[in-house]
């Protein structure tokens, strides 16, 4: 039986659907790993732990952890964080989205931790600094500067 990677949709600040399709194909994974990945893709914005995930799948946490690491090459916590960061990267493309909002939206309860994970994945911190009529936005591998006039902000 072959399984293909599903496309998971999430919504940006304008409530538009934004598709995110991970690069890996699920057809070589066991049923437990596929179900774990599908659960993560659907519930990434909620608190997910190895314990809650294993309860959801009716398997022992150690078994799931070892199987997941063996088949995907990464541990479950890193997979969850990497998935969240990928979704966040898309949400950060919209300059109206505040970083703290994006962090919370994708399941990070702490903006500092989110920024650290973002830096780990992309080599930079994500930050917005508004000073002297400029908004400095660092969300990808470049810095974008916006001139702010009057009450209009981005």
Describe this protein's structure.
This protein is an alpha+beta fold and 154 residues long. It has a domain of 106 residues: Orthogonal Bundle (Arc Repressor Mutant, subunit A). It contains six helices and five strands; from the N terminus they run E-E-H-H-H-H-H-H-E-E-E. It has a three-stranded antiparallel β-sheet with strand order 3-4-5, with no helix packed on it. A two-stranded antiparallel sheet has the order 1-2. Strand 4 and strand 5 form a beta hairpin. The longest helix is centred in the middle third of the chain and has 17 residues. The N terminus and C terminus are likely disordered.
Write the layout of secondary structure elements.
Layout (H helix, E strand, L loop, with lengths): L7 E4 L5 E4 L10 H13 L6 H8 L3 H12 L3 H17 L6 H7 L5 H12 L4 E5 L2 E5 L4 E5 L7
Antiparallel strand pairs: 1-2, 3-4, 4-5
